[in-house]
Specification:
Largest sheet: 3 strands, antiparallel
CATH class: Mainly Alpha
CATH topology: Cytochrome C Oxidase, Chain A
Structural class: mainly alpha
Radius of gyration: 25 Å
Protein backbone atom coordinates (compact mmCIF):
# COMPACT_ATOMS: atom_id res chain seq x y z
CA UNK A 1 0.00 0.00 0.00
CA UNK A 2 1.41 3.41 -0.91
CA UNK A 3 1.10 6.46 1.24
CA UNK A 4 -1.22 8.17 -1.24
CA UNK A 5 -3.75 5.39 -0.78
CA UNK A 6 -3.83 5.73 2.99
CA UNK A 7 -6.17 8.70 3.25
CA UNK A 8 -9.31 7.01 4.54
CA UNK A 9 -11.63 7.41 7.54
CA UNK A 10 -10.57 5.85 10.84
CA UNK A 11 -10.75 2.08 10.92
CA UNK A 12 -10.99 -0.74 13.46
CA UNK A 13 -8.23 -2.28 15.61
CA UNK A 14 -7.97 1.07 17.37
CA UNK A 15 -7.23 -0.43 20.80
CA UNK A 16 -4.37 -2.54 19.44
CA UNK A 17 -2.94 0.41 17.48
CA UNK A 18 -3.11 2.58 20.58
CA UNK A 19 -1.30 0.01 22.71
CA UNK A 20 1.45 -0.37 20.12
CA UNK A 21 1.89 3.39 19.81
CA UNK A 22 2.13 3.82 23.59
CA UNK A 23 4.77 1.10 23.81
CA UNK A 24 6.97 2.24 20.93
CA UNK A 25 6.79 5.97 21.76
CA UNK A 26 7.15 5.69 25.53
CA UNK A 27 10.04 7.48 27.22
CA UNK A 28 13.02 5.48 28.51
CA UNK A 29 13.09 5.10 32.28
CA UNK A 30 15.66 6.22 34.84
CA UNK A 31 18.14 9.07 34.85
CA UNK A 32 19.88 7.88 31.68
CA UNK A 33 16.46 7.54 30.07
CA UNK A 34 15.56 11.11 31.08
CA UNK A 35 18.78 12.33 29.46
CA UNK A 36 17.81 10.43 26.29
CA UNK A 37 14.37 11.94 25.60
CA UNK A 38 13.83 13.06 22.00
CA UNK A 39 10.07 13.71 21.81
CA UNK A 40 9.30 17.29 20.90
CA UNK A 41 6.91 17.83 23.84
CA UNK A 42 9.60 16.91 26.38
CA UNK A 43 12.32 19.00 24.74
CA UNK A 44 9.97 21.92 24.17
CA UNK A 45 8.90 21.88 27.82
CA UNK A 46 12.54 21.82 28.92
CA UNK A 47 13.21 24.95 26.86
CA UNK A 48 10.11 26.64 28.28
CA UNK A 49 10.88 25.85 31.92
CA UNK A 50 14.58 26.77 31.63
CA UNK A 51 13.80 30.00 29.79
CA UNK A 52 11.17 30.91 32.38
CA UNK A 53 13.75 30.42 35.14
CA UNK A 54 15.96 32.80 33.18
CA UNK A 55 13.07 35.29 33.06
CA UNK A 56 12.86 35.12 36.85
CA UNK A 57 16.64 35.57 37.16
CA UNK A 58 16.61 38.51 34.76
CA UNK A 59 13.65 40.00 36.62
CA UNK A 60 15.47 39.81 39.96
CA UNK A 61 18.45 41.54 38.35
CA UNK A 62 16.13 44.24 36.99
CA UNK A 63 14.72 44.82 40.49
CA UNK A 64 18.25 45.28 41.83
CA UNK A 65 18.98 47.81 39.06
CA UNK A 66 15.77 49.75 39.70
CA UNK A 67 16.31 49.70 43.49
CA UNK A 68 19.76 51.23 42.98
CA UNK A 69 18.34 53.97 40.74
CA UNK A 70 15.31 54.71 42.94
CA UNK A 71 16.86 57.87 44.35
CA UNK A 72 19.99 59.95 43.98
CA UNK A 73 23.32 59.10 45.61
CA UNK A 74 22.12 55.60 46.46
CA UNK A 75 24.72 53.20 47.81
CA UNK A 76 22.64 50.01 47.55
CA UNK A 77 25.01 48.79 44.80
CA UNK A 78 28.54 49.85 44.04
CA UNK A 79 29.56 50.71 40.46
CA UNK A 80 31.25 47.35 39.81
CA UNK A 81 28.33 45.28 41.07
CA UNK A 82 25.92 47.51 39.18
CA UNK A 83 27.81 46.92 35.92
CA UNK A 84 27.81 43.16 36.54
CA UNK A 85 24.09 43.04 37.29
CA UNK A 86 23.22 45.34 34.40
CA UNK A 87 25.24 43.24 31.94
CA UNK A 88 23.91 39.94 33.25
CA UNK A 89 20.34 41.25 33.11
CA UNK A 90 20.59 42.29 29.47
CA UNK A 91 22.44 39.13 28.48
CA UNK A 92 19.94 36.90 30.29
CA UNK A 93 16.88 38.55 28.81
CA UNK A 94 18.15 38.75 25.22
CA UNK A 95 20.10 35.52 24.86
CA UNK A 96 18.85 33.14 27.55
CA UNK A 97 15.18 34.04 27.87
CA UNK A 98 13.57 35.67 24.85
CA UNK A 99 14.79 33.62 21.88
CA UNK A 100 14.95 30.24 23.70
CA UNK A 101 11.44 30.76 25.07
CA UNK A 102 10.04 31.43 21.61
CA UNK A 103 11.92 28.41 20.28
CA UNK A 104 10.67 26.20 23.10
CA UNK A 105 7.07 27.16 22.40
CA UNK A 106 7.65 26.38 18.73
CA UNK A 107 9.25 23.01 19.41
CA UNK A 108 6.20 22.12 21.50
CA UNK A 109 3.46 23.54 19.27
CA UNK A 110 4.57 23.39 15.63
CA UNK A 111 4.47 19.57 15.19
CA UNK A 112 1.03 19.53 16.81
CA UNK A 113 -0.22 22.30 14.54
CA UNK A 114 1.17 20.52 11.50
CA UNK A 115 -0.47 17.21 12.39
CA UNK A 116 2.74 15.19 12.70
CA UNK A 117 4.28 13.10 15.49
CA UNK A 118 7.66 14.73 16.09
CA UNK A 119 10.14 17.18 14.64
CA UNK A 120 12.25 16.19 11.65
CA UNK A 121 15.52 15.49 13.52
CA UNK A 122 14.70 14.53 17.11
CA UNK A 123 18.29 13.94 18.23
CA UNK A 124 19.43 17.31 16.88
CA UNK A 125 16.53 18.82 18.79
CA UNK A 126 17.77 17.28 22.04
CA UNK A 127 21.35 18.38 21.32
CA UNK A 128 20.17 21.97 20.80
CA UNK A 129 18.63 22.02 24.27
CA UNK A 130 21.78 20.69 25.94
CA UNK A 131 23.82 23.42 24.21
CA UNK A 132 21.38 26.05 25.47
CA UNK A 133 21.59 24.66 28.99
CA UNK A 134 25.40 24.70 28.74
CA UNK A 135 25.28 28.43 27.95
CA UNK A 136 22.95 29.08 30.89
CA UNK A 137 25.18 27.21 33.33
CA UNK A 138 28.37 28.81 31.99
CA UNK A 139 27.09 32.38 32.40
CA UNK A 140 25.69 31.82 35.87
CA UNK A 141 28.74 29.87 36.95
CA UNK A 142 30.55 33.13 36.25
CA UNK A 143 27.94 35.09 38.22
CA UNK A 144 28.30 32.90 41.30
CA UNK A 145 32.12 32.81 41.15
CA UNK A 146 32.59 36.59 40.93
CA UNK A 147 33.32 36.39 37.21
CA UNK A 148 30.10 37.95 35.87
CA UNK A 149 30.53 40.02 32.70
CA UNK A 150 30.57 43.74 33.40
CA UNK A 151 30.94 45.52 30.04
CA UNK A 152 27.31 45.83 28.88
CA UNK A 153 25.25 43.20 27.08
CA UNK A 154 26.62 44.12 23.63
CA UNK A 155 30.25 44.40 24.73
CA UNK A 156 31.41 47.31 22.59
CA UNK A 157 35.09 47.36 21.77
CA UNK A 158 37.58 48.73 22.75
CA UNK A 159 36.09 48.84 26.28
CA UNK A 160 35.50 45.07 26.14
CA UNK A 161 38.99 44.43 24.75
CA UNK A 162 42.01 43.12 26.68
CA UNK A 163 43.36 46.62 27.27
CA UNK A 164 40.38 47.87 29.33
CA UNK A 165 38.69 44.67 30.60
CA UNK A 166 41.26 42.19 31.89
CA UNK A 167 40.33 38.83 33.36
CA UNK A 168 37.87 36.25 32.07
CA UNK A 169 34.54 38.04 32.53
CA UNK A 170 34.22 39.21 28.94
CA UNK A 171 35.54 35.86 27.69
CA UNK A 172 32.73 34.04 29.52
CA UNK A 173 30.18 36.35 27.90
CA UNK A 174 31.65 35.91 24.42
CA UNK A 175 31.73 32.11 24.60
CA UNK A 176 28.26 31.93 26.15
CA UNK A 177 27.01 33.60 22.97
CA UNK A 178 28.32 30.68 20.92
CA UNK A 179 26.39 28.17 23.06
CA UNK A 180 23.07 29.92 22.62
CA UNK A 181 23.45 30.60 18.92
CA UNK A 182 24.39 26.99 18.12
CA UNK A 183 21.22 26.00 19.98
CA UNK A 184 19.15 28.53 18.08
CA UNK A 185 20.39 27.29 14.71
CA UNK A 186 19.60 23.69 15.68
CA UNK A 187 16.02 24.70 16.41
CA UNK A 188 15.80 26.75 13.20
CA UNK A 189 16.87 23.75 11.13
CA UNK A 190 14.29 21.62 12.94
CA UNK A 191 11.45 24.03 12.32
CA UNK A 192 12.25 24.59 8.63
CA UNK A 193 12.55 20.88 7.84
CA UNK A 194 9.43 20.00 9.83
CA UNK A 195 7.29 22.72 8.25
CA UNK A 196 8.40 21.98 4.71
CA UNK A 197 8.36 18.19 4.76
CA UNK A 198 6.20 16.87 7.64
CA UNK A 199 2.89 18.68 7.34
CA UNK A 200 -0.36 16.76 7.50
CA UNK A 201 -1.54 15.57 4.07
CA UNK A 202 -3.06 18.34 1.96
CA UNK A 203 -1.97 21.10 4.34
CA UNK A 204 -0.70 23.16 1.42
CA UNK A 205 1.36 26.27 2.03
CA UNK A 206 -1.76 28.45 1.93
CA UNK A 207 -3.32 26.38 4.75
CA UNK A 208 -0.43 26.62 7.23
CA UNK A 209 -1.50 28.30 10.52
CA UNK A 210 -0.25 31.87 10.88
CA UNK A 211 1.74 30.92 13.97
CA UNK A 212 3.60 28.28 11.96
CA UNK A 213 4.32 30.89 9.27
CA UNK A 214 5.75 33.19 11.93
CA UNK A 215 8.09 30.46 13.19
CA UNK A 216 9.16 29.51 9.66
CA UNK A 217 10.10 33.13 8.94
CA UNK A 218 11.83 33.45 12.31
CA UNK A 219 13.83 30.28 11.64
CA UNK A 220 15.16 31.61 8.33
CA UNK A 221 16.09 34.85 10.11
CA UNK A 222 17.99 32.84 12.73
CA UNK A 223 20.02 31.06 10.04
CA UNK A 224 21.13 34.39 8.58
CA UNK A 225 21.49 36.46 11.77
CA UNK A 226 23.03 34.11 14.31
CA UNK A 227 26.30 33.46 12.42
CA UNK A 228 26.96 37.22 12.57
CA UNK A 229 26.90 37.39 16.37
CA UNK A 230 28.97 34.20 16.58
CA UNK A 231 31.56 35.85 14.34
CA UNK A 232 31.53 39.07 16.38
CA UNK A 233 31.90 37.26 19.71
CA UNK A 234 34.59 34.97 18.26
CA UNK A 235 36.53 38.00 16.96
CA UNK A 236 36.37 39.51 20.44
CA UNK A 237 37.30 36.26 22.17
CA UNK A 238 40.24 35.51 19.87
CA UNK A 239 41.55 39.08 20.28
CA UNK A 240 41.49 38.55 24.02
CA UNK A 241 42.83 34.99 24.21
CA UNK A 242 45.20 34.45 21.29
CA UNK A 243 46.10 38.06 20.43
CA UNK A 244 44.44 38.38 17.02
CA UNK A 245 43.75 41.88 15.70
CA UNK A 246 40.16 41.82 14.46
CA UNK A 247 38.47 44.47 16.63
CA UNK A 248 41.18 45.59 19.09
CA UNK A 249 42.24 49.11 17.99
CA UNK A 250 45.45 48.91 20.04
CA UNK A 251 46.62 46.26 17.58
CA UNK A 252 45.18 47.85 14.43
CA UNK A 253 41.71 46.29 14.63
CA UNK A 254 38.48 48.11 13.82
CA UNK A 255 35.94 48.59 16.65
CA UNK A 256 33.32 49.80 14.17
CA UNK A 257 33.61 46.46 12.38
CA UNK A 258 32.50 44.82 15.63
CA UNK A 259 29.50 47.15 15.87
CA UNK A 260 28.44 46.47 12.28
CA UNK A 261 28.63 42.70 12.70
CA UNK A 262 26.94 42.79 16.10
CA UNK A 263 24.01 44.94 15.00
CA UNK A 264 23.58 43.00 11.76
CA UNK A 265 22.48 40.35 14.24
CA UNK A 266 21.15 42.71 16.91
CA UNK A 267 18.33 44.34 15.04
CA UNK A 268 17.00 41.19 13.36
CA UNK A 269 17.21 39.73 16.88
CA UNK A 270 14.40 42.09 17.91
CA UNK A 271 12.21 40.65 15.16
CA UNK A 272 13.39 37.11 15.84
CA UNK A 273 11.78 37.66 19.25
CA UNK A 274 8.83 39.70 17.98
CA UNK A 275 7.65 37.72 14.94
CA UNK A 276 6.71 34.59 16.95
CA UNK A 277 4.66 36.89 19.19
CA UNK A 278 2.72 37.97 16.09
CA UNK A 279 1.93 34.30 15.54
CA UNK A 280 0.72 33.97 19.14
CA UNK A 281 -1.54 36.96 18.64
CA UNK A 282 -3.05 35.54 15.44
CA UNK A 283 -3.84 32.17 17.08
CA UNK A 284 -5.35 33.79 20.18
CA UNK A 285 -7.41 36.34 18.21
CA UNK A 286 -8.77 33.68 15.86
CA UNK A 287 -9.81 31.32 18.68
CA UNK A 288 -11.37 34.02 20.85
CA UNK A 289 -13.10 35.89 18.02
CA UNK A 290 -14.38 32.56 16.64
CA UNK A 291 -13.44 33.36 13.08
CA UNK A 292 -10.38 33.15 10.87
CA UNK A 293 -8.01 36.12 10.94
CA UNK A 294 -8.92 38.67 8.29
CA UNK A 295 -6.35 39.04 5.53
CA UNK A 296 -4.43 35.75 5.71
CA UNK A 297 -2.34 36.59 2.63
CA UNK A 298 -1.62 40.11 3.86
CA UNK A 299 -0.57 38.73 7.24
CA UNK A 300 1.86 36.23 5.72
CA UNK A 301 3.36 38.71 3.26
CA UNK A 302 3.75 41.41 5.91
CA UNK A 303 5.57 38.97 8.20
CA UNK A 304 7.88 37.96 5.35
CA UNK A 305 8.48 41.67 4.65
CA UNK A 306 9.26 42.19 8.34
CA UNK A 307 11.86 39.44 8.11
CA UNK A 308 13.52 40.98 5.06
CA UNK A 309 13.44 44.61 6.15
CA UNK A 310 14.76 43.72 9.63
CA UNK A 311 18.15 42.99 8.04
CA UNK A 312 18.30 46.52 6.60
CA UNK A 313 17.98 48.55 9.81
CA UNK A 314 21.05 47.79 11.85
CA UNK A 315 22.85 51.11 11.28
CA UNK A 316 20.17 53.06 13.17
CA UNK A 317 21.97 51.76 16.28
CA UNK A 318 25.10 53.51 15.00
CA UNK A 319 23.89 56.97 13.96
CA UNK A 320 26.26 58.56 16.49
CA UNK A 321 29.40 56.95 15.03
CA UNK A 322 29.94 59.46 12.22
CA UNK A 323 28.88 57.38 9.22
CA UNK A 324 28.26 58.95 5.79
CA UNK A 325 24.98 60.87 5.77
CA UNK A 326 23.71 59.30 2.55
CA UNK A 327 24.02 55.88 4.17
CA UNK A 328 22.24 57.09 7.29
CA UNK A 329 19.39 58.35 5.10
CA UNK A 330 18.80 54.90 3.63
CA UNK A 331 18.69 53.31 7.09
CA UNK A 332 16.30 56.01 8.30
CA UNK A 333 13.96 55.15 5.44
CA UNK A 334 14.05 51.42 6.10
CA UNK A 335 13.58 52.01 9.84
CA UNK A 336 10.37 53.88 9.10
CA UNK A 337 9.27 51.45 6.40
CA UNK A 338 9.06 48.49 8.77
CA UNK A 339 6.35 50.28 10.74
CA UNK A 340 4.07 49.82 7.71
CA UNK A 341 4.37 46.04 7.61
CA UNK A 342 3.81 45.80 11.37
CA UNK A 343 0.81 48.10 11.10
CA UNK A 344 -0.81 45.89 8.45
CA UNK A 345 -0.96 43.03 10.94
CA UNK A 346 -2.45 45.19 13.68
CA UNK A 347 -5.23 46.31 11.35
CA UNK A 348 -5.91 42.70 10.34
CA UNK A 349 -6.39 41.76 14.00
CA UNK A 350 -8.61 44.77 14.60
CA UNK A 351 -10.74 43.81 11.58
CA UNK A 352 -11.01 40.27 12.93
CA UNK A 353 -12.14 41.56 16.31
CA UNK A 354 -14.60 43.95 14.68
CA UNK A 355 -16.28 41.19 12.69
CA UNK A 356 -15.95 38.36 15.24
CA UNK A 357 -17.73 37.35 18.45
CA UNK A 358 -15.12 38.19 21.07
CA UNK A 359 -14.65 36.24 24.29
CA UNK A 360 -12.74 38.38 26.80
CA UNK A 361 -10.49 35.64 28.12
CA UNK A 362 -7.22 36.36 29.91
CA UNK A 363 -5.28 35.67 26.73
CA UNK A 364 -7.35 38.29 24.86
CA UNK A 365 -6.61 40.82 27.58
CA UNK A 366 -2.91 40.30 26.94
CA UNK A 367 -3.44 40.78 23.21
CA UNK A 368 -5.25 44.08 23.78
CA UNK A 369 -2.38 45.16 26.04
CA UNK A 370 0.14 44.07 23.42
CA UNK A 371 -1.50 46.12 20.66
CA UNK A 372 -1.67 49.26 22.80
CA UNK A 373 1.89 49.02 24.14
CA UNK A 374 3.48 47.97 20.87
CA UNK A 375 1.80 50.85 19.03
CA UNK A 376 3.37 53.30 21.50
CA UNK A 377 6.75 51.57 21.21
CA UNK A 378 6.51 51.69 17.43
CA UNK A 379 5.88 55.43 17.48
CA UNK A 380 8.98 56.11 19.57
CA UNK A 381 10.85 53.82 17.18
CA UNK A 382 9.90 56.07 14.27
CA UNK A 383 11.18 59.02 16.31
CA UNK A 384 14.53 57.33 16.88
CA UNK A 385 14.78 56.51 13.17
CA UNK A 386 15.35 60.22 12.52
CA UNK A 387 19.07 60.98 12.69
CA UNK A 388 18.82 64.45 14.34
CA UNK A 389 16.43 63.18 17.02
CA UNK A 390 18.44 60.02 17.53
CA UNK A 391 21.60 62.05 18.14
CA UNK A 392 19.79 63.89 20.96
CA UNK A 393 18.27 60.76 22.53
CA UNK A 394 21.17 58.38 21.88
CA UNK A 395 22.40 56.55 24.99
CA UNK A 396 19.67 58.05 27.15
CA UNK A 397 16.82 56.45 29.04
CA UNK A 398 14.52 57.40 26.17
CA UNK A 399 16.11 54.52 24.22
CA UNK A 400 15.72 52.20 27.24
CA UNK A 401 12.02 53.04 27.46
CA UNK A 402 11.49 52.53 23.72
CA UNK A 403 13.37 49.26 23.73
CA UNK A 404 11.30 47.80 26.56
CA UNK A 405 8.02 49.01 25.08
CA UNK A 406 8.84 47.16 21.89
CA UNK A 407 10.22 43.96 23.42
CA UNK A 408 8.14 43.55 26.59
CA UNK A 409 4.99 45.03 25.10
CA UNK A 410 5.55 43.43 21.72
CA UNK A 411 6.79 40.01 22.81
CA UNK A 412 6.29 39.30 26.52
CA UNK A 413 2.62 40.34 26.66
CA UNK A 414 1.70 38.01 23.74
CA UNK A 415 3.87 35.34 25.37
CA UNK A 416 1.86 35.53 28.59
CA UNK A 417 -1.30 35.41 26.51
CA UNK A 418 0.11 32.27 24.89
CA UNK A 419 0.80 30.73 28.29
CA UNK A 420 -2.84 31.17 29.29
CA UNK A 421 -4.07 30.03 25.87
CA UNK A 422 -2.03 26.81 25.58
CA UNK A 423 -1.69 25.94 29.27
CA UNK A 424 -4.70 23.56 29.06
CA UNK A 425 -3.13 21.82 26.08
CA UNK A 426 0.17 21.33 27.91
CA UNK A 427 -1.29 20.30 31.28
CA UNK A 428 -4.90 19.25 30.67
CA UNK A 429 -6.19 21.88 33.11
CA UNK A 430 -7.26 25.53 32.95
CA UNK A 431 -5.71 28.34 34.92
CA UNK A 432 -8.02 30.56 36.96
CA UNK A 433 -9.44 33.26 34.68
CA UNK A 434 -10.13 35.76 37.47
CA UNK A 435 -6.56 35.53 38.72
CA UNK A 436 -5.39 35.70 35.12
CA UNK A 437 -7.18 38.99 34.46
CA UNK A 438 -5.81 40.39 37.73
CA UNK A 439 -2.40 39.21 36.54
CA UNK A 440 -2.84 41.16 33.31
CA UNK A 441 -3.88 44.43 34.94
CA UNK A 442 -1.08 44.30 37.51
CA UNK A 443 1.50 43.68 34.77
CA UNK A 444 -0.04 46.34 32.50
CA UNK A 445 -0.06 49.03 35.18
CA UNK A 446 3.38 48.06 36.48
CA UNK A 447 4.88 48.00 33.00
CA UNK A 448 3.66 51.48 32.04
CA UNK A 449 4.60 52.90 35.42
CA UNK A 450 8.11 51.52 34.98
CA UNK A 451 8.95 52.37 31.40
CA UNK A 452 6.90 55.42 30.43
CA UNK A 453 8.79 57.69 32.87
CA UNK A 454 12.04 56.53 31.26
CA UNK A 455 11.13 58.43 28.08
CA UNK A 456 10.82 61.64 30.10
CA UNK A 457 14.01 60.89 32.02
CA UNK A 458 15.80 60.48 28.70
CA UNK A 459 14.50 63.81 27.44
CA UNK A 460 15.68 65.34 30.71
CA UNK A 461 19.18 64.07 29.96
CA UNK A 462 19.51 60.92 32.08
CA UNK A 463 21.98 58.68 30.31
CA UNK A 464 21.81 54.91 30.46
CA UNK A 465 24.36 52.77 32.31
CA UNK A 466 24.97 55.18 35.16
CA UNK A 467 24.78 53.62 38.62
CA UNK A 468 23.84 56.80 40.50
CA UNK A 469 23.19 60.53 39.97
CA UNK A 470 23.29 63.77 42.00
CA UNK A 471 20.02 65.17 43.44
CA UNK A 472 20.27 68.47 41.57
CA UNK A 473 19.55 66.68 38.28
CA UNK A 474 15.86 66.46 39.24
CA UNK A 475 15.44 62.81 38.30
CA UNK A 476 14.44 61.41 41.71
CA UNK A 477 10.65 61.42 41.39
CA UNK A 478 10.49 59.77 37.98
CA UNK A 479 13.06 57.16 38.99
CA UNK A 480 11.08 56.36 42.13
CA UNK A 481 7.96 55.91 39.98
CA UNK A 482 9.85 53.55 37.69
CA UNK A 483 11.14 51.55 40.66
CA UNK A 484 7.64 51.26 42.16
CA UNK A 485 6.44 50.04 38.77
CA UNK A 486 9.19 47.41 38.66
CA UNK A 487 8.05 46.01 42.01
CA UNK A 488 4.46 45.97 40.77
CA UNK A 489 5.64 43.91 37.77
CA UNK A 490 7.27 41.53 40.26
CA UNK A 491 3.91 41.16 42.04
CA UNK A 492 2.33 40.36 38.67
CA UNK A 493 4.95 37.67 38.12
CA UNK A 494 4.15 36.12 41.52
CA UNK A 495 0.43 36.09 40.66
CA UNK A 496 1.24 34.26 37.43
CA UNK A 497 3.39 31.68 39.21
CA UNK A 498 0.68 31.10 41.82
CA UNK A 499 -1.88 30.66 39.05
CA UNK A 500 0.36 28.17 37.24
CA UNK A 501 0.83 26.00 40.34
CA UNK A 502 -2.85 26.28 41.29
CA UNK A 503 -4.00 25.47 37.77
CA UNK A 504 -1.62 22.53 37.46
CA UNK A 505 -3.04 20.93 40.58
CA UNK A 506 -6.59 22.22 41.02
CA UNK A 507 -7.58 23.77 37.69
CA UNK A 508 -10.73 22.69 35.87
CA UNK A 509 -10.15 19.74 33.56
CA UNK A 510 -9.92 21.34 30.14
CA UNK A 511 -10.72 18.63 27.63
CA UNK A 512 -9.08 18.59 24.25
CA UNK A 513 -10.38 21.93 22.94
CA UNK A 514 -11.64 24.26 25.68
CA UNK A 515 -11.51 27.37 23.46
CA UNK A 516 -13.24 25.75 20.45
CA UNK A 517 -10.17 26.75 18.44
CA UNK A 518 -9.58 25.78 14.83
CA UNK A 519 -5.99 24.48 14.55
CA UNK A 520 -4.83 20.88 14.79
CA UNK A 521 -3.09 20.98 18.17
CA UNK A 522 -6.54 21.10 19.76
CA UNK A 523 -7.42 17.76 18.15
CA UNK A 524 -4.74 15.99 20.20
CA UNK A 525 -5.19 14.87 23.79
CA UNK A 526 -4.48 17.34 26.60
CA UNK A 527 -1.64 16.92 27.45
CA UNK A 528 -0.62 15.28 24.15
CA UNK A 529 0.57 11.70 23.95
CA UNK A 530 4.20 11.18 22.99
CA UNK A 531 3.04 10.43 19.44
CA UNK A 532 0.51 13.33 19.30
CA UNK A 533 -2.04 11.66 17.00
CA UNK A 534 -3.15 8.05 16.77
CA UNK A 535 -4.19 8.69 13.18
CA UNK A 536 -2.68 11.64 11.35
CA UNK A 537 -5.32 14.13 10.18
CA UNK A 538 -5.95 15.19 6.60
CA UNK A 539 -6.36 18.95 6.17
CA UNK A 540 -8.88 20.45 3.76
CA UNK A 541 -9.19 23.94 5.27
CA UNK A 542 -7.25 26.65 7.08
CA UNK A 543 -9.52 25.90 10.04
CA UNK A 544 -9.51 22.08 10.09
CA UNK A 545 -11.34 21.74 13.42
CA UNK A 546 -14.19 23.94 12.18
CA UNK A 547 -14.86 21.47 9.38
CA UNK A 548 -17.91 19.27 10.23
CA UNK A 549 -16.78 15.98 11.85
CA UNK A 550 -18.40 13.89 9.14
CA UNK A 551 -16.19 15.57 6.52
CA UNK A 552 -12.89 14.88 8.29
CA UNK A 553 -10.56 12.09 7.15
CA UNK A 554 -7.44 10.55 8.59
CA UNK A 555 -4.31 8.72 7.51
CA UNK A 556 -4.03 5.01 8.16
CA UNK A 557 -1.39 2.56 7.06
CA UNK A 558 1.54 3.96 9.04
CA UNK A 559 3.18 1.20 11.06
CA UNK A 560 2.56 1.40 14.79
CA UNK A 561 5.41 -0.92 15.81
CA UNK A 562 8.11 1.68 15.16
CA UNK A 563 8.44 5.49 15.22
CA UNK A 564 7.18 6.00 11.71
CA UNK A 565 6.13 9.40 10.35
CA UNK A 566 4.76 10.60 7.04
CA UNK A 567 6.85 12.84 4.76
CA UNK A 568 4.87 15.06 2.42
CA UNK A 569 5.65 17.24 -0.59
CA UNK A 570 6.78 20.83 -0.19
CA UNK A 571 3.99 22.81 -1.83
CA UNK A 572 0.77 20.82 -1.50
CA UNK A 573 1.71 18.36 1.27
CA UNK A 574 0.78 15.30 -0.71
CA UNK A 575 2.01 12.05 0.92
CA UNK A 576 5.44 11.18 -0.45
CA UNK A 577 7.00 8.44 1.70
CA UNK A 578 7.27 7.03 5.18
CA UNK A 579 10.26 7.76 7.39
CA UNK A 580 11.39 6.01 10.58
CA UNK A 581 12.65 8.33 13.30
CA UNK A 582 15.63 7.17 15.37
CA UNK A 583 15.17 5.76 18.84
CA UNK A 584 15.86 7.82 21.99
CA UNK A 585 19.58 8.20 22.55
CA UNK A 586 22.06 9.36 25.18
CA UNK A 587 24.47 10.50 22.44
CA UNK A 588 23.01 14.00 21.93
CA UNK A 589 23.57 14.67 25.64
CA UNK A 590 27.12 13.28 25.54
CA UNK A 591 27.85 15.30 22.39
CA UNK A 592 26.58 18.41 24.14
CA UNK A 593 28.90 17.68 27.08
CA UNK A 594 31.88 17.18 24.71
CA UNK A 595 31.20 20.44 22.85
CA UNK A 596 30.74 22.22 26.18
CA UNK A 597 34.13 21.00 27.38
CA UNK A 598 35.73 22.32 24.20
CA UNK A 599 33.95 25.69 24.35
CA UNK A 600 34.50 26.38 28.04
CA UNK A 601 38.04 25.05 28.09
CA UNK A 602 39.04 27.22 25.12
CA UNK A 603 38.37 30.32 27.22
CA UNK A 604 41.29 29.29 29.44
CA UNK A 605 43.51 27.37 27.02
CA UNK A 606 43.17 27.25 23.21
CA UNK A 607 44.28 23.59 23.19
CA UNK A 608 40.87 22.65 24.60
CA UNK A 609 39.44 23.23 21.12
CA UNK A 610 41.46 20.25 19.90
CA UNK A 611 40.59 18.14 22.93
CA UNK A 612 36.90 19.02 22.69
CA UNK A 613 36.87 18.29 18.96
CA UNK A 614 38.25 14.79 19.55
CA UNK A 615 35.64 14.09 22.23
CA UNK A 616 32.91 15.48 19.97
CA UNK A 617 34.04 13.28 17.08
CA UNK A 618 33.86 10.19 19.28
CA UNK A 619 30.36 11.11 20.41
CA UNK A 620 29.22 11.75 16.83
CA UNK A 621 30.40 8.28 15.86
CA UNK A 622 28.15 6.88 18.57
CA UNK A 623 25.33 9.22 17.52
CA UNK A 624 25.36 8.12 13.89
CA UNK A 625 26.34 4.47 14.39
CA UNK A 626 23.83 2.41 12.36
CA UNK A 627 21.16 0.75 14.47
CA UNK A 628 17.88 -0.97 13.84
CA UNK A 629 14.77 1.12 14.55
CA UNK A 630 12.74 0.22 17.61
CA UNK A 631 10.20 -2.41 16.56
CA UNK A 632 7.76 -4.45 18.59
CA UNK A 633 7.78 -8.19 18.42
CA UNK A 634 5.18 -9.53 15.96
Amino acid sequence: MTATQDIVPQTQNQAEDLENLNRVWRHPRGVLGWLSYTTHQAIGMRYIVTAFIMLLAGGIEALLIRTQLAHSNNTFLGPDHYNEIFTTHGTTMMFLFAVPMMEGMAIYLVPLMLGTRNVAFPRLNAFGYWMYLGGVLFLYWGVFTNAAPDMGWFAYTPLSGPQFTPGKRTDIWAQMITFTEVSAMCVAAEIIATVFKMRAPRMSLNRIPLYVWSMLIQSFMVLFAMPAIMIASSFLLSDRTVATHFVNPAEGGDPLLYQHIFWFFGHPEVYIIFIPALGFASAIVSANCRREVVGYTAMVLSQIANGFIAFGLWVHHMFATGLPQIGEAFFTASSMMIAITSGVQIFCWLATMWTGRIRLTTSMHFIYGFIAIFALGGMTGVILASVPLDLQAHDTFFVVGHFHYVLIGGAVFPLFGAFYHWFPKMTGRLMNETAGKLNFWVLFVGFNLTFFPMHILGLKGMTRRIYTYPPEMGWDQLNMLATIGAWIIAIGGLIFLANVFWGRRYGTVAGNNPWDAESLEWAAASPPKNYNFEYLPVVTSRAPLWVPPEDRTFVTGLRNDRREVLVTTLMDAEPHHRYVLPRPSIWPFLTGVAVTIGFIGSVFDAWYITFGSILTGICLIGWFWPSRPVELEP
